[in-house]
Amino acid sequence: MQKRGKMTNAKSIESHARSFPCHYIVFDLLQFEGKSYTNSDLKARKQLLKKFFLVQNLSIGVDYTSKQRIMAIDTFTDSQLLLEKVRSNNSEGIIAKKVDSIWVEASRTKNWLKIKNWRYVDVILIKFDQSNGFFTGAIYIEDNVSEIVAFKH
Predict the structure, then answer these.
(1) Order of strands, sheet of 144-152, starting from the edge strand that comes earlier in the sequence
(2) C-alpha distances in angstroms, 153 versus 90, 136, 150?
(3) Cα separations (Å) of 23 from 62, 63, 66, 76, 114?
(4) Which residues contact 117 (CB under 8 A, 6 or more apart)?
(5) Distance between CA atoms of 29 and 26, rounded to whole angstroms?
(6) DSSP labels, 49-101
(7) Which residues pair with 94 in a beta bridge?
(8) Strand partners, 35
(9) What is the CA radius of gyration of the chain?
(10) What is d(CA 45, CA 108) in angstroms, rounded to the nearest whole number?
(11) What pLDDT, in 10s, does the model give residues 104-124?
(12) pLDDT of residue 48 exceeding 70
């Protein structure tokens, strides 16, 4: 998705959209039918979200092979199973949330914990974009240089 966000050529965008279409993954429900649920706890918001998805016949759980483009994020209580899934899918990480937490806008809270799945790889720096301060890193795949990361120091 990050690579697609930088594309400007309509044909390239269309080709990438066909080969790996975007999915909208819903993780919370803050407002529904004009009513705010930001003061409701996470458990209540998740129950309402699940009910809405079931009524709309939308997927509860992420499946990137599905033709459905709107899905609700999986909820786990088994931390070991979740950690195994994160590692096997090479996912970015986990957001662990207290079930009784309310939504706090534009603020970090101790009720939500970000657990990163750190991955380390040696890359060759091949570009530096002075306009935004981003470096591009690449690796060799067979005899070809392949861009794999853009980052800011």
Answers:
(1) 124-129, 134-141, 144-152
(2) 22, 11, 10
(3) 9, 9, 9, 20, 22
(4) 86, 87, 90, 91, 92, 93, 94
(5) 8
(6) HHHHHHHTT-EES--TTSS--EEEPP--S-HHHHHHHHHHTT--EEEEE-TTP
(7) 115
(8) 32
(9) 19
(10) 19
(11) 999 888 999 999 999 888 999
(12) yes
Structure tokens at 27: 């993780």
β partners of residue 135: 128, 151
Percentage of the chain surpassing pLDDT 70?
97
CB contact at 8 A, 121 and 136: no
Token pair listed for 56: 């709309």
Judged by phi (left if over 0) then psi (alpha if -120 to 50, else beta), residue 59 lies in: beta
Give every CB contact of residue 102 below 8 A, 6+ residues apart in sequence. 38, 39, 40, 41, 42
Q: How far apart are CA 65 and CA 85, in angstroms?
A: 16
Residue 9 in tokens: 């050529």
Separation of first and last alpha carbons in the chain: 21
